[in-house]
Write a structure and sequence with these properties.
Number of domains: 2
Helix content: under 10%
Number of strands: 7
Distance between the termini: 21 Å
CATH class of the largest domain: Mainly Beta
Shape: globular
Largest sheet: 4 strands, antiparallel
CATH superfamily of the largest domain: Glucose Permease (Domain IIA)
Radius of gyration: 16 Å
Structural class: mainly beta
Strand content: 25-35%
Oligomer: single chain
């Protein structure tokens, strides 16, 4: 969990065990590597679960809307292929496309993303 200021907290889940590089009380900056993407917890494949909330309790806080300052869409995962994949692990390269930069927005479902 990361305090974002203004009563907002960011929650990161399913990180690689042992990869977290920050500790309570550390100040972090935009773009800083904090951990590696993983497959921990109740998860069927490597992914990041992230949300913003109004308090430090994952189950006792309300989710808040947010946007990313910048990200790139790098393609789209085919819905039929995704739905047919039992473990959500597969070769998604067929959906890759030339990256497109977006600012102050939120990605759509099943988009392939790049964050820099």
């Amino acid at each position: 969990m990361l305090y974002l200021g203004g009563g907002r907290y960011g929650f990161y889940a399913h990180l690689q065990r042992g990869s977290v590089l920050v500790k309570p009380g550390d100040k972090v900056t935009a773009g800083q590597l904090m951990a590696k993407l993983g497959n921990s917890g109740n998860s069927s494949g490597p992914h990041l679960h992230f949300h913003v909330m109004n308090g430090p309790s994952v189950l006792g806080s309300e989710g808040l809307p947010y946007v990313f300052t910048t990200f790139q869409t790098a393609g789209m995962i085919d819905k039929a292929q995704f739905d047919a994949t039992m473990d959500f692990v597969g070769d998604w390269s067929a959906g890759r496309a030339a990256p497109v930069t977006h600012t102050d927005s939120f990605p759509m479902d099943k988009q392939i993303l790049n964050f820099a």
